[in-house]
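Quick one:
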Amino acid sequence: MVVSDPRQPDNPIVLANQAFLDLTGYSAEEVIGCNCRFLQGSGTAPEAIEAVRQGLAADEHFITVEMLNYRKDGSTFWNQLSISPVHDARGRTIYYFASQKDVSAQRRAEELEAVERLLLMEVDHRAMNALALVESILSLTRADDVNRYSDSVKRRISAIARVHRLLAHTSWGGAPIEQLITEEAGDARVVMHGPSTLISPRLAQPLAIIFHELVSNAIQHGALLNNRGTVEVDWGVRPDRLTVQWQEHGAHVRSPPSVMGLGLSLVHSIIERQLSGDMSVTWAEPFAVQLAIPLHQQDVT
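Output:
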């Protein structure tokens, strides 16, 4: 605690107890005669200072403010400052009694709790994204043969696992789009063109599945089925959308099927249902898939 005298110029401290001296690191000789503002520093919020000023000017019965204060050694602490005026028999303010309470640990706990809430929300969001992909995989994978169904599901779940590992290496800061393609294509004949683009986790997970399906489709039915074919991937970033064009050269000419194959059906489902984007397919040589995906804030950097 401290007691200050507003009847003297600049309302100086006239009494400070040992607990105050221990908290701030100053000696009694250093604080007596000084205004309490010596505890303030560059990190002290102007709003907190103004709240104290206005409270004293209005001669309020009780003022409580939390502010960041500085010890003599420069270290900081969160100070729960409580001030009340002391009046004489005629109602005039003759002293201010102020108690200082170090609430740094409480503030850290509150900040950690707030961070924990944000982390839990982010984990929930990522889990929901992954579960939405798994739901699409399970619902669209054919179940007419148990072994083939199991293998197809495992391969697609592995693609999700790969992008999770990739995102973990960047502390979930995002994944380069070319690396998403390389993770699925391996050493296949895939040529990439596009600006260096970091894809947010929200987009990276579904895009990993999309590239997995397009690569698998090219290996089983398209340009990578033979030694002559190549794949070219071009992407572009606009303020409101990401565009991707997948072209296969040297594949046999395809005719539009009456029912879109499983891989492209899954791509179509993810693009339209999960990402609210558009997909179009050109079946003649070169076989091409065009994707347009709306972007949210900070989806790409």
